[in-house]
Amino acid sequence: MKKEDIQASAETDMTLEGEFARGYVVLTKSKLVIMTSVPDEAEVFQFKGVGSIHDAKVQKEKAWAAKFLPFEEVHKLDVLRSVCGGILYSTAKKDQPDSVPDVQLAAFTNMKVGDVLRVVRLFDVLKEKGELTEEDLKTDDGEEYCPKCGTMYPDKDRKICPKCMDRRSVFLRSLAYFKPYIGKISIMVLCYIATAGLNLVWPYFSGTILYDKILNKDTKFLEFLGNPGMEFVTALGLIVLTMFLTKVTIQAVGILQGVFTAKIVPVVVKEMKTQVFKSMGRLSISFYNKRQTGSLMTRVLSDAERVTGFFIDGLPYLFINLLTIIATAVVMFRMNWRLAILALIFVPILFTVSFRLMPRLWQFYGRRHRAERSMNARLNDNLTGARVVKAFGQQESEMERFDKNNDRVRTAELALVSFDNKFYALYVTFERIASVVVWGLGSYLLLKQPNMHLGILITFTGYVQQLNGPLDFMSYAFRWFTDSMNSSQRMFEIIDAVPEIVEKPDAIRMESIKGQIELKNITFGYEPNKPVLKKLNLNIKAGTMLGIVGRSGAGKSTLVNLISRLYDPQEGEIYLDGTNIKDVAFKDLRKNVAMVSQETYIFMGTVAENIAYANSNATMEDIVNAAVLASAHDFICKMPDGYDTVIGSSGRNLSGGERQRISIARAILANPKILILDEATASVDTETEKAIQASINFLIKDRTTISIAHRLSTLRDADRLVVIDNGEITEEGTHSELVEKKGTYYKLKELQTKALALKGLE
Amino acid sequence: MPKKKKGSVAGAPESGNNFEEFDLEKMEKETEEMLRLRFITKDNSVFERTEGGFVSLKMGEEFYPRIQVYHAFPFTDRDSYISIREADEKAKEIGVIKNLKKDISKESREMLEEQLRLRYFTPTIEKIINIKNEYGFAYFDVLTNHGACRFTIHMGGGSVVNLSDTRLMITDLDGNRFEIPDVTRLTSPELKKLDLFL
To answer: Are A20 and B147 in contact (CB under 8 A)?
Structure first.
């Protein structure tokens, strides 16, 4: 087999016996080639997100076994999906009992499914047409790599390379949030510097000056003060006053910076929360499907605070404490370098150790976050399902389950604290040792060396004491920094997430639309390679009603999700009045497409606010009119607070039918050109259904309506009906056409009538 | 459409044959059948390997040239309730083997186990070389009973599931599964690496 002969190929990574081994499925113009290798124990199998573009190209020399299958011998190729991957097999010709049965050809893990399915698709084309065009080969299934370092993106929709995204940039980006407050922050920094300076002179006053100059009655000092005749008691008074003023100033400066902190922190926290929330809103539905609500809540609620805490309280102190440490060190060296070395030798050691321990800390914080997150998720789950919990009397077991999560948070917190205590203990131990050593050696020098004075020693030990504060802070700062960066990283993860569905920069504004919809060759699945809709074509004329029929899971709701662009199709395009909906501005699309679905959601707020959800400018008259048309006015008025009744999570409970009618009123008020009714009357009784049906009949006037229903009676007025089965349209036409056809629709209809008749007999 | 067919129970799939049949009697019969498990034993079935590597089943008059084999309890009990299903996409259940070890012959069992092995292929992690946690993903470098593997998981939750207090199931970005049958058997440096997920 020559390289030029290869039309398409896919890598496989398993044997049919269930071992990892490299293999290939190759298509030439006339043959299907299955290549397999012997499992190699030395080989490392890399899955999605691992490895770089460089190893993707490298192929080891191997002993290959190849099986050549001419196209004539292969009737059709198919993939049998399994839990962890799939099996490629050729199928037997139907109705020919003596033809070759289904034959297993190759096995592979989930990572390779997409590639193999592509080969299966191309095989059909090749077998039919004999060659592949550029169009056929065009594919976006491949993996994508970071352009900088070549690492495979773990998530190709979110093009962030974990390698190139380092912590430093997380730090700098977080810092950027404080830029608008630079003035206030500079004042704070000045305060910090003042504090540090004052702290630095304190031991000098209380040691050298007090002992050596005043208590030792050093006349030179009085000369230095400019009044040689002064009494030493007066000098003492002066120095005590100075010391007192120093302390007062330190306190005052402290209060000042506290005031500024209080001014900046809440604003920045709010800003961060807003941005995270905004980013979440921007993201597509699929993002929410992948994550737990609890986890997302933690990010908005507590992460921003953790990030800011460090920057405002921690960072300036860190700066000032470092400054203090350096200044103190310099002073100490100038006073007595031997003592200084002894006192300071441990500082660099401590810092190195701390630095080394940071990744461990990082892990502890990550773990606590996860524990908190799963507790939030459990709580959320439990509160949402409170009715079911009560109904089945499962409070006790829920309590146990919650306890388990709660325990996990406790354990994580304890582990963190105990690790942190070790940190602190390490610092304190070294500090105490240093101070004992300095006292010991200092006293020795005091005895042996004539130029050593008690005052100097006291000043010196004062400085050693002075170091304790900043050093203790440093022990804390390392963990504070880690905590903050850990939270900040999670926050940026959301802010950086790229929505799968984006508005084009030069999106077309479509203020008024006619409502003609066309679907061309739509293929879509929620998970890659598991299509729910398969090459679907559909044309809906403006102002008409289309009814969609099909059994649960056939892809009906998926179809309407695509039209309202909650998801984008993997293949094919959707046109609205001849314009690709991918080009239409979100605002106009959302304004013109409204959905009433089975899943009604009532937001916290009054009835009126809920009805006006999509149109906040609506007048009272509009709201009441909409409610009347949705046959909701009656029950709303009967409530004691009428339209001002607070409903939603904290308010009054509404019945399913009432909720449904409010959501219809919402759609009426939104006044869309395209209306989607997804089982809008599924959860209500017959009488309510009649009422709702009447409102719907009003609602669909002059609009393009797509209605999904199990009850065929709901679709009686549809201009056209389509039957969807297994992701494909199997039948279409008007009610009478379909009945005449005696196909699926007819059978369904008969089935329902018969069953209803039978019910009547009972 | 009848909201609930006679005796139909929530959780049972809606009649799969809605479209083909509307003969009420037949439908009711089918619904009733669906409410009863049909047990497959060595007395009422003949399993055979096919040339193509699949398994066929003969049950009385019925013959299925290819069947699919599912676990009903893939994590908790791999020998009980093995569901035998038709080969097409709808995968209608043919019957259930209540106990794989007792109810069918050894040969049949081996055949079915081969099919199950491919369907539920899950390497067991024997040694953790490294786990790196970066920007919302965790990168695993491990040794499994099927060789060395490097894979990536989402940190967003749900990727690591506790099947019991000591048993973990890890699902990578594509849905490939890896299992740690007993975390207590790991060494303490390995546990430290796994710490994040315990």
So the answer is: yes
ipTM value > 0.85? no
Phi, psi dihedral angles at A13 (to 5 degrees) = -135, 15
How many residues appear in chain A?
A: 762
> Which residue among A82, A110, A367 sits closest to B118, beta carbon to beta carbon?
A82
pLDDT score recorded for residue A416:
86
d(CA A81, CA B115): 12
- pLDDT for the residue B20: 46
Closest by alpha carbon to A202, among A152, A243, A142? A243
Whole-angstrom distance, CA of residue A71 vs CA of residue A737: 42
Would you tell me the crossing angle of helices A315-335 and A337-344 to the nearest 10 degrees? 150
CB contact under 8 A, B176 and A109: yes
**Is A747 in contact with B21 (Cβ distance < 8 A)?**
yes
Confidence of residue A164 (pLDDT cuts 50, 70, 90): low
Taking only Cα atoms into account, the Rg of chain B, rounded to an integer number of angstroms, comes to 21
CA angle B1, A685, A384 (to 5 degrees): 100
Q: Flag whether the pTM goes above 0.90.
A: no
CA distance B108 to chain A (A): 17
| Residue A359 neighbours by CB under 8 Å, 6+ apart | none
CA distance B145 to A20: 10
d(CA A724, CA A730): 6
Q: Starting at the earlier edge strand, list the strands of the sheet with B160-162.
A: B160-162, B168-171, B177-180
Closest CA of chain B from A570, distance in Å: 17
Mark yes or no for CB contact B18/A363 under 8 Å.
Answer: no
Q: Which amino acid is at A616?
A: S
Which residues, other chains included, contact A18 with Cβ-Cβ below 8 Å and sequence gap of 6+?
Answer: A107, B117, B118, B121
* CA nearest neighbour of A264 among A336, A316, A199, A320: A316
Q: Which residues make beta-bridge pairs with B131? A: B140
Nearest to B6 by CA among A762, A744, A750: A762
As given in the structure block, the two tokens for residue A751 are: 């089935």
Would the pLDDT of A762 be above 60? no
Is residue A298 predicted with pLDDT exceeding 80? Answer: no
Round to whole Å and give the CA distance between A222 and A224.
5
For residue A685, with 0-12 CB atoms within 10 Å meaning exposed, 13-18 middle and 19 or more buried, which class applies? exposed
Helix (H) or strand (E) holding A704: strand A704-708
The shortest C-alpha distance from B82 to chain A (Å) reads: 15
- For the record, the structure tokens of A515 come out as 């409502």
Cβ neighbour number for residue A607 with a 10 Å cutoff? 28
Nearest to A283 by CA among A487, A141, A496, A526: A496
Which among B54, B119, B172 has the least Cβ separation from residue A47? B172
Facing residue for B196 by CB, picked from A113, A363, A747: A363
